[in-house]
Structures are given as structure tokens and as C-alpha cells.
Amino acid sequence: MRAWLAYVRTVLLARLAWRGDWALGAVGDLVTAGIGLVMVVAIFHAVPLVRGWTREELLVCWGVAEAARSLCWMTCRGLYVANSIYVVGGELDRLLLRPLHPLAQILLEHVHLGAWPGIVWGVGVVWWAHGGLTVEEAGVLAVGVLGGTAILAGVLVAFSSIGLYVLHRGSAVGLVWQATAFAPYPPTFLPWPVALALATVLPFTFVGFAPGCWLLDHEVPGWVWLQPAVAVAVLALGLRAWQSGLARYGSAGT
Amino acid sequence: MNGALRTWGSVVRLGVLHHFAWRLDVVIALLSATMVLVLNGSVWEAVADGQSRLGTLTPVELSTYVVIAWCASRVTATRVDENLGQRHASGQLATDLLKPLDLPSYLLARDVGRAAVAAVVTALPLLALGAWWFPLAWPRQPVTWALVAGSVALGVAVGGQIGLLVGMASFRLRRVTGLVSLKEVATALLSGALVPVTLMPDAAAHAVMVLPFAALAHVPAWLFLERATGAEALGLLVAQAAWAAILAVVVRLSWWRALRHLTVEGG
Q: For residues A53 and A86, which has the higher predicted lDDT (pLDDT)?
């Protein structure tokens, strides 16, 4: 435990040393969150109702997804660079010498506290679009956001583990992250193969749409309640993939 | 002149080779772009479903806009900023400045190589896939293709200059990642690559048209739809070229200024 605390402290101090970049990063995250919002607003600027869904309903789903995305970005940003810095760059060897799990070290070295505005932003939009939240609803929202974060983390960990099997410079994590922007959209917005993929292969429908539905009066499909189970399963699978990838890691020799 | 051409030609070739060296990354970039295109296009298709017009666009024109703007944005999306920021952070910049090549021009020439690869291995397959997946309104006049190609090329020039400006900001900020992500967001929002400019509220659309970002995706898509033809189309290209020229002057001035104040650590 002492080792963990000392480690977290060092990481935070190092992070605060680059204040300019840190502040810009926070602004960047906030504006990034704005892309999805602008898209929803632009859509409903053009038409009042899309396949039976209103702007406010979609904004609730968007807010849940945004809070989960920001929470995941805050904790899992290291996965973005895990491949280029740690595996190809050989830094993983250094981590393996230390008494903490290497995945935990990768995540901690890149903890991104600047992502908090996205969480506030997402929850705020849910609150606004829903017309306030009761205590129970806030609890439901918290469960939905945490479940969504676990799904995102599980998928990202699984994809970043590809770098442990196949050597490549970039990372598929960025690719996956781009698809998360479509987490809030109801499956009926998409052609069925795409909707199915977004519920199974990359189960991001469970990050935004499903937990968002819990808060809506709209008639919703029954499977949206499976989200917590999906979250546990996806996170477990992701960690499993990383662990077995690590067993195959042969070092770059640098 | 011939010698200079050979030199810069070889830099462009270097950009091409560098881009191809990591083949899996080229594949990942294509997959990523394909996924976003299908998702984004599908959402807009759902929005247009049952409507005769969205703003000034018919549903088919909307799909076309979304596909073409996205393809163009893959070619104009530069990585000059990241590259320059990394050179500064690692201290490589010190040795770069000793070389007998002008660094901004060198980075731009390499970016031209990257753009050429992106056009062939990303944009064209995306266009084919988009045409298969979505209904597209093809240009009626052959000259439109030339206009679109010219517009994308000018977009590469504008994008490269913006990238250089962002990269140079790293000399002051010491790190560039934050600003790069900010630029990427601004590009995504303001270029038309994700949200068609014509569907934005009027005031926003007008503002966006004045900014250089429209050169990166909106203008090629607009030309492809033949919404601007003849003198109007040429006017759009001239506006793109003007932005490239203005930004080039700003880049040059900032570069001289930056060199005077530059401190390179390590190396």
C-alpha cells in the first residue's frame, strides 16, 4: 500500500510540472466532449424527431455516455500510448522490474485528472435534459456511468493488448475510441449489422443508450437492463486478454 | 532548379516511405476511418429518413456530402504539428536546424507524401465503400473531379500550415499534445467533416465559412455536389489558396521569431 501511495504522489507531481499543457488538455477534453453535443444539437436543429426519439431523450443518453467516457479517459489514457512507448519503445521492461502490476503502472503514469470537466458536463446535460434528478435517479445514473466506464475500460484494455501479440507502432485504441462517440444513439438509428456490432463486438450501446434508457419514460427494449452484467463480463475479458498477452511479451531489447 | 526539385522530391518520397513502413498502422487508419464513416453516415441517413430536404440538401446529397467531406478530411489531416512538437521535446530540433534544409518546408514536403499515400490507400477505398453503402450523387460534369482534386490539394496546404503553427506553439508550451487535441477538435467541428456546415445554425455556418477549416473538408464536398460551379467554384478555390498563402506568411514570421527565442534542451 505504501508503495502505491508513493507512486501515485510521484505521478501527480510530475503531471503538475507541465501546467500549460495540462490546462490546454483540460480545455481540449471539454471541447472534444462538445463535438458529440454539437452533432446531437445539429441533428435536431434539422428535424424535431428521429425514428421516434426526441432531442432531450438523446441528450440524456449522450450525457451518460460522456460522463463514462470522461471517467474512462481520466483513468485509462495510458492505454493510448501503451503500445508506442511501452511495448515498441521497450519501457515495459522497466515496469516489469517494479513490484506493482505493469498495467496498473501504465494507467497510473498517465492518469489524467484534467478530464473531470467532461464528467460534470455529462452529468449536467443529463440533469438538464431530464428536467432534474431525484436521489434514486442519481443513484441509477451513477450505476449506469460506472458500468459504462467498466465496459469502455475492458474494451480498451483488450485492444491495447493487441500490441503485446503483434508489434506495431500506432494503436487500435484510438480507432475504438472513435466508435465510442456513437454510444448514445439508439440501435434503430443504424442499419442492423452496424447496430448489432455496436451491441456485441464493441458493446458501446451499453455505455450510452442502455443506461440512458433507465432514466427515460420512452418505451425501451428489455436488454438495456443487462448493462451491469455486460460490464463485469467485458472488463474480465479485457483483463484476461492483457494478462495472456503479457505472458507472450518478449521485450524489444532496448 | 532541377536540383532543388530533386531534393524536395526525395523528401516527399521519404514521407511516402515512412508512411508505408508501418503497414499495420495504415490498415488500422483505414479501418478506423471506415468505421466512423459508416456510423456517421448511418446516423445522418436516419435523420434524413422521410424528409424531402435537410436545410438545402436532399437526403442523397446529404449522404454524398458526409462521404466526400470525410474522405477529404482523411487526406488533409496533417501530423506536422505532432512531428514538430516531438522534435522539439526530444531535442532533435537542434540537429534539424543544422541541416541544410529549411525545416518547415521539409515537414510540409513530407506531409505532401503522407497526403498522397492517404489519398490512394485511405480516401479512394473509403469513397468506393461509401458509394457501395450509401446512395451518392455523382458529379455530372467531368471538370468537377478536377476541381475537387484541386480543392483537396489546397486543403492539404492549408492543413499543413495550421499544423506548423500548432507545432511551433510547442516551443513556448514545451509540450504539444494539448494543443494538438484542441486543433483536432476544432477541425472536426469546423471543417464539415462530421457535421455538415450547411446544417449548422445560420450564424455558426457563416462563421465557419470564414475560417480556414472549411478548406479541409467542406469545400471539396460542396464542389463535388456541384453546388458551386464556374466562377463561384473558382472563387472557393481562390479563397482556399488565399488562406494557404496568409497562413504561410504567418508561419514564416512566427518561425523567424521562434528561432530567436528558441531554447532546445538535450539533443
A: A53
- Cβ(A34)–Cβ(A62) below 8 Å: no
Is there a domain that residue A175 lies in?
yes
ipTM above 0.95, yes or no: no
The yes-or-no verdict on residue A108 having pLDDT over 90 is: no
pLDDT (average), residues A132-146 = 91
B39-62 tens-digit pLDDT = 999 999 999 888 888 888 999 999
Which residues in A have their CB inside 8 Å of a CB on B? 18, 20-29, 31-32, 34-35, 38-39, 42-43, 45-47, 50-51, 166, 168-172, 174-175, 178-179, 181-182, 185, 188-191, 194, 198
Q: What's the domain range around B85?
A: 2-261
Full residue range of the structural domain in which residue A132 is found: 2-248
- How many domains does the structure of chain B reveal? 1
**Chain A nearest-CA residue for B170:** A21
Segment B96-112 mean pLDDT: 88
Instruction: Locate B92 and state its grid cell.
Output: 532533435
Nearest to B195 among A29, A32, A42 (CB): A42
Mutation for A interface: B25, B27, B39, B57, most A CBs within 10 A: B39
Confidence band (pLDDT; 50, 70, 90) for A167? low
Residue A21 has what pLDDT? 55
Q: Is B39's CB within 8 Å of A35's CB?
A: no
**How many structural domains is chain A composed of?**
1
Domain-embedded: residue B139: yes
Of A155-159, B11-15, B204-208, B251-255, the one with minimum mean pLDDT is B11-15
- Cα-based angle B63, B67, B70 (whole degrees, multiple of 5): 140
Q: Which residues of A129-154 are buried (b: 16+ CB within 10 A; e: fewer)?
A: bbeebeeeeeebbeebbbbbbbbbbb
Residue of B57, B64, B54 lying closest to A50 (CA atoms): B54
Q: Tell me if A254 is assigned to some domain.
A: no
Q: What percent of chain A has pLDDT over 70?
A: 80
Neighbours of A6 (CB within 10 A): 10
Given a contact cutoff of 8 angstroms between Cβ atoms, the answer to whether B15 and B112 are in contact is yes
Taking residues B161-172, report their average pLDDT.
88
A63 belongs to a structural domain: yes
B178 to chain A, any CB pair closer than 8 A? The answer is yes
Q: Do B189 and A174 touch (CB under 8 A)?
A: no
Backbone phi, psi, residue A209, to 5°? -60, -50
B54 forms beta bridges with: B57
Is A254 a residue whose pLDDT tops 50?
no
Is residue B267 in some structural domain?
Answer: no
Nearest CA in chain B to A26: B178
Distance from CA of B169 to the nearest CA of A (A): 11
Residue A11 counted as domain residue: yes
State the Cα–Cα distance between residues B153 and B149, nearest whole angstrom: 6
pLDDT band of B225, cuts 50, 70, 90: very high
